[in-house]
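Hi there,

I know you've been waiting on this one. I reran it after we fixed the sequence typo, so this is the corrected version. Both the input and the resulting structure follow.
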Amino acid sequence: MKIRRTMLGITAVIALGASLVVAPAAQAAPAGTTSLATVLAADGAGFDRNSQDFDILDNAVQAVLGAKPGSAVAVLADGTVPLTAFLPNDLAFRVLAHSLTKHWYGSESAVFGAIAGTLTIDQIEKVLLYHVVPGATIDAATALKSNGAVLATASAGDTLKVRVLSARYKLIQLIDGKRGNLNPFLNPRQLDLNKGNLQIAHGVTLVLLPAGF
């Protein structure tokens, strides 16, 4: 994936009760600068039959940057900018496409086409940014200690809430802003992707949607 580098001038904050704490303060700072764009592009830019990887997400990022080269989504390619991203897999996007069109699609390319044909580029950009917590490298160990935390996302004014259902079994749910939407879990098999770097990611089982979407 070829993405123009940019800086995102937003500080991520976790709200715990009435207090505000800058997210990275609770953990040692990682040193690596491998970007999440590298993770997304690891298996190429095409579509396949693996519903657990991130082909649709990768193509959505490329579509936004192709239409809006200056989009803040480009921060995913700048490994010097700390952030945490929640990555919906291809199955999660298939569920979103069904929610939007009331039709199930058999291939990843058809799912992507349905989403791109239903949502505008600005809407897709907003959804992507809603999955990014800028300024904070939040690993799974930190997330498991953050029940009730509210995360400020790169989608201006939109937040996510963390609900830890079981620390033992690593069951972490994210509560998004769309009322009535099914809320995803972090995939226990896809935690701490790109660990050791300033940009870290966790797979999620459904696409997060902001309020009013």
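Quick highlight: Residues 13-204 form a domain with the FAS1 domain fold (CATH 2.30.180.10).

Best,
R. S.
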